[in-house]
Write a structure and sequence with these properties.
The complex is a heterodimer of chains A (462) and B (426).
Chain A lengths: L2 H30 L9 H38 L9 H16 L9 H39 L6 H41 L2 H6 L3 E2 L14 E2 L2 H32 L2 H16 L2 H22 L9 H26 L2 H9 L4 H30 L2 H6 L17 H9 L8 H31 L5
Antiparallel strand pairs in A: 1-2
Chain B lengths: L4 H47 L4 E10 L2 H4 L7 H6 L2 H12 L6 H8 L6 H11 L7 E7 L2 H11 L10 H12 L3 E5 L1 H5 L12 H32 L4 H15 L2 H15 L7 H25 L3 H9 L4 H30 L2 H5 L20 H10 L4 H31 L4
Classes of the chains: A mainly alpha (462), B mainly alpha (426).
């Protein structure tokens, strides 16, 4: 039986177990004269039985499905004659693939060495055996669990407590997924990066001024060593982000101030959600807009003033990215501005300050930590933004601070290095993970600082 | 403390200055809001202006004769004969009959290029559906090539785009226009077909189905886990270092750039667990991991908004903590959680970058039929089309964006509606 079929069988058994458990509990209750003589409600006994029936069997099923493949392949490999045994891990993978393809009938058996055909047959036999034993074992464990739990049911069994404890553990496990995700990110990025740093020293990567991620196919090739200096990428990322911030911070901040302090209620009710539409537009749409509308427009404008604007200029990507970030800043700023107590405004106004003076000298300073945190989060957003720059900025790693030139960014390079067919262990693909590590660290640090700023400088009103 | 007139004058003058500053500040604010709103308008207007054309396609009326001899089919029951028959020959004959003046080979080839090279299959489907047509002649509308489509649409707009056409083709087109045998029809192909290298045949159905499957998986994975985690953190978690650590993790994950989740998917799901690339399962897993923090945070807010009196009443009636949460708090918080989940799903629907990492950028013609079929999703399809050099794909890309935005607007509106409908004020 396939793992999926077995899973559905297991679900069926579990449902059955629930009804059997509940039935037995009700029966006992009837004999005692009503369910108030039971420790828990009958359905808890049902859940209890279902838990014993389903959970261990499910665990076994998962473990079996995960380890089945590698174990069987290992056994098949051991059965191979010594002259065919693979030497390295790459050959091992290749041979394993070949054998499984033969056994699946994808590769024709003609012209294959006999040993491989035998191995393919062994593989087939083992997998059949494994499937049968999995079916037998999992269903018998489920049935055993069911029987055992059902036999445990007596009127005094504290079924509710046990079920509730189990539920609580399940909830806890779900909460821990967040930890595992972080762990997964850190480990996956870190492992590959460490491998990368074995071939390219860390200092060369972080301080190198030239980026051309080509790896030599032959050792004696001209220009055989690709250079992995990431500084041009950092500069490009910084340039685009700075342009974006020049757009987003003034517009976002001023519109937040206007909507929170000046605008009529009805204007605010429509303008605020309308601005937030900008945050809901997918980034790929902005990328298309930047590449096909903004960039040609800027080039034409530049031409009419005699400036040469690259058709993949950092300015176009930055402008559009800034537009995307406007609502991010405006809604965060709006939150902190409206959180400033009215009494502070009243005090300032009573002293004879005009409204704008009140905003500039009282409200903004009071809201500053929140605003700064918002801007930092926005910067980390801009640095990590991918699609706009992938579509609207270039691939050439120019070291320039001129926004009219074409630059490339960290995220663009990650995408270009990883899309396309290449072997996984080349320095080229590993470089993408090293860049990913940088990106992760920088955004993480920005986020942590932002949270600290909020925590440390938040004025406690009330 | 009497003020001399000089002082008063000074104050008067400073007042003028201060009021001017006040006004300027106000105008700045208004300008900022207007700029932001203009940006919204410009983006939408730009996309709509470029995209509406793709919902209609150019068709040419041709008198097609279903000639058995031209096809070379003796027996229509023979599948092999039917499949290998030269269906385009019917089209070519019809075109030659329409323009008898064209003699030269090269010109004839240009003439044949008026019709899309899938048009032969449309004729095949038509004939196979009704074999009685055999030997008859009928006028049918044939899908035109994308260059013809671009020409005709621009001609209708008054500024004909002739760059990719020969004089012979232009003459033929003028003749068709004069006899009203070239028309715009609703482009059903765009909604009912998969991707194609030929712009006039490319459709978004494959991408929409792929997106749908991926989203289903994302929802199934992230919604229950997110709710469970939120319940644990809000209702059961003890105040200790571990809980604090979980919370820090969730807050940080919410701000991690989406492309990092793509790296995670590539390294863990594809290289470690050996799940095949490009299938909705991997996409769903990655997007689920990505949306999980959002779902947890919104669910926690929903749980927090349930007043403590509900909990106290429930406990007071003798419910256990689990019963209190599952029977009372959860049902009351569910609408808020649902709204959060819909918004999270809307974000996942628009996400592109992580899916590029896990190989969902492949060129896939077939419409995926299951979770393990290679698929692409709507935003990635947009990305792929935006990269295509053909002029006609600009129109297609914008139209695909319109469809994507349509889905997003629907989801967000339903979230707002749900909130309005189900929200309770305590």
């Amino acid at each position: 039986m396939h793992a999926t079929d077995l899973f559905f069988l297991l679900v069926g058994l579990t449902v059955l177990a629930f009804y059997m458990g509940r039935g037995k509990a009700s029966q006992i209750a009837q004999g005692l004269g009503g369910i108030r003589n039971l420790h828990s409600l009958p359905s808890y006994y049902g859940h209890y039985t279902a838990l014993y029936c389903g959970f261990p069997a499910l665990l076994l099923l998962c473990a079996w499905s995960i380890f089945e493949g590698p174990v069987i392949i290992g056994m098949v490999m051991d059965s191979l004659p010594s002259d065919l045994r693979p030497s390295g891990s790459v050959e091992y993978k290749l041979l394993a693939n070949k054998i499984s393809n033969i056994s699946l009938g994808i590769l024709p058996t003609i012209n294959q060495p006999d040993a491989l055909i035998t191995a393919a047959e062994t593989l087939q036999r083992y997998s059949q055996l494994s499937r049968w034993s999995m079916t037998a074992l999992v269903s018998s464990i489920a049935l055993l669990g069911l029987m055992w739990a059902r036999s445990m049911i007596v009127a005094e069994l504290r079924a509710r407590q046990r079920v509730e404890t189990a539920v609580r553990y399940a909830l806890f496990a779900c909460a821990c997924v967040a930890i595992f995700t972080t762990l997964g990110i850190v480990l996956s990025v870190l492992f590959e990066s460490l491998q990368f740093f074995k071939s390219v020293p860390v200092a060369d990567f972080i301080f190198g001024l030239e980026w051309s991620p080509q790896m030599a196919i032959r050792a004696d090739q001209v220009g055989s060593s690709g250079s992995f200096g990431a500084v041009p990428l950092f500069v490009g990322t910084l340039l685009v982000s700075v342009v974006a911030m020049f757009v987003a911070v003034p517009i976002g901040l001023m519109s937040a101030i206007y909507l929170a302090e000046y605008a009529h209620k009805s204007v605010r009710a429509y303008a605020k959600p309308a601005l937030e539409i900008l945050a809901g537009i997918p980034t790929v749409v902005y990328g298309f807009f930047a590449a096909l509308t903004v960039a040609p427009f800027l080039r034409n404008v530049g031409e009419s003033y005699g400036l040469s604007v690259s058709s993949e200029s950092a300015l176009a990507a930055g402008l559009v990215m800034g537009v995307m970030i406007i609502p991010f800043i405006s809604s965060l700023a709006d939150d902190v501005i409206t959180a400033v107590p009215q009494a502070m405004r009243d005090g300032s106004l009573a002293m004879g300050a005009t409204h704008s003076e009140t905003v500039r000298r009282v409200v903004i300073p009071a809201a500053l930590p929140g605003i700064v945190a918002g801007i930092m989060l926005a910067i980390s957003r801009a640095i990590g933004e991918t699609m706009i720059v992938v579509m609207a900025s270039g691939l050439a790693a120019n070291m320039t601070f001129n926004p009219l030139d074409s630059v490339t960014t960290v995220t663009v390079q990650i995408v270009t290095l990883l899309t396309g067919d290449q072997e996984f262990d080349s320095a080229k693909t590993l470089a993408a993970f090293a860049l990913g590590l940088m990106l992760f660290l920088i955004t993480l640090i920005l986020n942590i600082i932002a949270l600290q700023v909020v925590k440390r400088f938040r004025e406690q009103y009330e | 403390m009497s003020k001399t007139p000089q002082h008063l004058e000074k104050i008067q003058r400073s007042l003028v200055r201060r009021y001017r500053a006040e006004k300027a500040f106000r105008w700045c604010g208004m300008l900022a809001v207007t700029l932001g709103l203009t940006a919204v308008l410009v983006v939408f207007a730009d996309i709509f202006m470029k995209g509406t054309g793709a919902f209609s396609a150019t068709y040419i009326a041709l008198d097609v004769t279903y000639d058995r001899e031209v096809l070379g089919i003796e027996n229509f029951a023979d599948q092999r004969q039917v499949n290998t028959a030269d269906w385009e020959a019917l089209l070519k004959t019809a075109l030659r009959k329409e323009f008898p003046d064209v003699r030269k080979r090269s010109e004839k080839r240009k003439l044949y290029a008026l019709a899309s090279n899938a048009a032969g299959y449309d004729i095949k489907d038509r004939l196979l559906a009704n074999l009685r047509l055999l030997g008859e002649t009928e006028t049918i509308w044939i899908l035109a090539d994308d260059d013809i489509d671009a020409y005709y649409k621009s001609w209708l707009g008054g500024n004909a785009y002739t760059a990719r056409l020969t004089d012979g083709q232009l003459g033929a087109l003028q003749a068709l226009i004069d006899t009203d045998r070239i028309q715009l029809h609703f482009n059903a192909n765009f909604l009912s077909r998969g991707d194609s290298r030929e712009p006039e045949q490319a459709g978004i159905k494959g991408a929409v189905v792929g997106s749908f499957m991926t989203l289903i998986l994302t929802l199934v994975l992230s919604f229950p886990i997110g709710i469970a985690a939120a319940i644990y953190l809000e209702e059961f978690a003890p105040k200790n270092a571990l809980t604090e650590f979980i919370e820090v993790n969730i807050n940080n994950l919410a701000a991690v750039p989406s492309i990092i989740f793509g790296l995670l998917g590539l390294a863990i799901f594809i290289n470690l667990f050996h799940i095949p690339r490009s299938i909705p399962i991997v996409g769903g897993l990655v997007l689920a991991v990505m949306t999980l923090p959002t779902v947890i945070i919104t669910s926690r807010a929903a749980i927090k908004s349930v007043p403590p009196s509900i909990r106290e009443a429930s406990l007071g009636m003798g419910a256990s903590r689990n019963q209190m949460v599952l029977h009372h708090v959860l049902p009351l918080a569910l609408p808020g959680m649902l709204t959060g989940a819909i918004i999270g799903m809307a974000r996942a629907l628009g996400e592109t970058a992580p899916l590029l990492m896990i190989g969902m950028v492949a060129f896939i013609v077939d419409i995926p039929r299951g979770f393990t079929d290679p698929a692409t999703v709507l935003p990635v399809q947009i990305f792929l089309w935006a990269d295509s050099p053909e002029r006609a794909f600009i129109e297609k890309t914008s139209a695909a964006i319109m469809v994507l935005l349509g889905f997003l607007v629907t989801m967000n509106m339903s979230a707002v509606w749900l909130r309005k409908r189900l929200e309770r004020r305590w």
